[in-house]
Amino acid sequence: MQRSPLKDKSYSFAIEVIGFCKYLQQERREFIITKQLVRSGTAIGALIREAEFASSRPDFANKMNIALKEANETDYWLSLLKDTEGNEFSERIAKLRYECSQLIAMLVATLKTVRGQKTSKPTFH
What we know:
- By secondary structure, the chain is an all-alpha fold.
- It has four helices and no strands.
- The chain has helices at about 5-25, 30-50, 55-85, 90-115.
- Helix 1 runs antiparallel to helix 2 and helix 2 packs antiparallel against helix 3 (about 55-85).
- The relative contact order is 0.17.
């Protein structure tokens, strides 16, 4: 199986999200938003991995579309944290939001490619 920048980036992003949320839970006792952030931030990569073994092109596109929705939700939770936890974490949140926006762009590009192709097997970008 070939390496995929999308798979690699989503996995690295999940690790960063988990680390950040662990810190917030230990240091700030913040559990409500971080629980949601971990769920959505790790779901992106899980769905991308799931799409590898999609049974059809529509199944592949559906899993990638759900990954895109999870990425959008993740950005929402990060934005909410930025506005509720103060400036102390603004740099780290900005970095995570940037990484999330890159994942969103990659997922959008993948979906455009899949929808534009008619006969070949779907590939990762």
